[in-house]
Amino acid sequence: MEKRVGRRGFLVSGAVVGAGALVTACTSNEPAAAPSSAAPQATTAGTDNDQPGEKVVIGFSAPAADHGWIAAIAKNAEAQAKQYSDVEFKPVEPTNDINQQISAVESLIQAKVNALVILPNDGEQLNQVARRATDAGIPVINLDRVFPDKLSYRTWIGGDNYGMGVAAGHFIGDRLKQAGVSNPVILEIQGIATLPLTQDRSKGFADALKTYGFSVTAQQDAKFTVESGTQVASNLLQAHKKIDAIWNHDDDQGIGVLAAIKEAGRDEFFMVGGAGSANAMRDIQADSGVLKATVTYSPTMASSAIKLARLIAQGKGMSDLVEQQVPQSITLASETITKDNAAQYLPLGFES
C-alpha cells in the first residue's frame, strides 16, 4: 500500500464536540438523517447556521475506498451534504493514483465550485493543484493529510496522531502500573513506518509510556492492511513468548492482528487498537478477548469538513466562537473507548 493513510478523531476545540451524536456549534434544529445499518454516518443538527442560505456547490475528492476508514470518509461527507437544501455535493471519482486525483481536482476547479474538500492521497504531491484552486478563489478545506503550503488551503481539519499515541500509552501504562507489572513487554504494531503520521503516533506512545517508566520492547509496521496485520502479529508472537501489552495503530489492520492472536491461542496480554471501528467497539463491549480499548481517529471528520466548507463558502463563522471566521486549523481529539463508553461511541464507528 502507498502513502494513503491518515486516520480518525473527534472535533473538539471551541467549535465542535464529538460524543454520542457529534453535536456541533454551527448547525440547526433539523433532525439528522437516520444512519444505515451497515455503517452509520455521523450527521449533525444544532443552531441557526444550518438554516437554508445561499446555494453553494462543494467539490469533494478522496482516495479510493480500499479499507473501512476511507469508505466511511466518503459516506460521511455525502451524508452530511444531504442535510442541506442549499448544498450541491459534487464528488469526483475516488482514486489512489496521484495523477488521476490531480486531474479530478482540476476538473472541479474548472467547474468553478464554491468550495473544495480534499483528502489527498499525498499532501505534498497534491499541494500545487490545491494551490491552483485557492489562487482561483476557491477555498480548500484540507482534510486529514495536510498540504505543506498553507497558501494551498483555507482550513485544515484532521486527527491528532500524536494524541492517539499519548492516549494509547496512558491506557497501557496506567493498567500495567495498577497491576504492579515491572519491566513489561510492550509491543507496537504501526501502520506505515515512513509516514509522518505514524511517526507522530509512535512518538506520542513513547512519551506517554516514559511517564510510567516504561518503553516499547519491539516495534514493527503492518502497512494498514489485514494481511500484513496477520503476518506481523504472527512474527511478533513467535519472537516474544511473554507479552504484557500491544498497541496496534489501526483497527482495519487489527482484524488481521486479532486473527493471528486467536490462531496462536495467546491471551496473557491485553491490546489497544486505533481508529475506533465499529467491530473493534463491539469486541471491546463483549470483553471476551484481548482487545480492551481503542483510541479514536474518526471518519466523522469528513462530515465536519463539509459543514466547514459550507460555512466558508457562505461567508459564515462558527456560532459558538467570538471570531467572525472559521478557524484556519482544527485538530481533533483522540478519545479512549473502553467497555464503559463503547455504547456511546458505537454510532460513530465505521465497519472495517
TrEMBL record:
Keyword Nucleotide-binding listed: no
Residues in coiled coil: none
Gene3D superfamilies in the cross-refs: 3.40.50.2300
Residues annotated as domain Periplasmic binding protein: 58-316
Residue segments, region Disordered: 31-53
Top-level taxon in the UniProt lineage: Bacteria
Entry's localization field: Cell envelope
Annotated keywords: Signal
Entry keyword annotation includes Signal: yes
Biased composition (Low complexity): 31-45
GO annotations of cellular component type: cell envelope
GO MF entries: carbohydrate binding
Family note: Belongs to the bacterial solute-binding protein 2 family.
Protein name, UniProt field: Ribose transport system substrate-binding protein
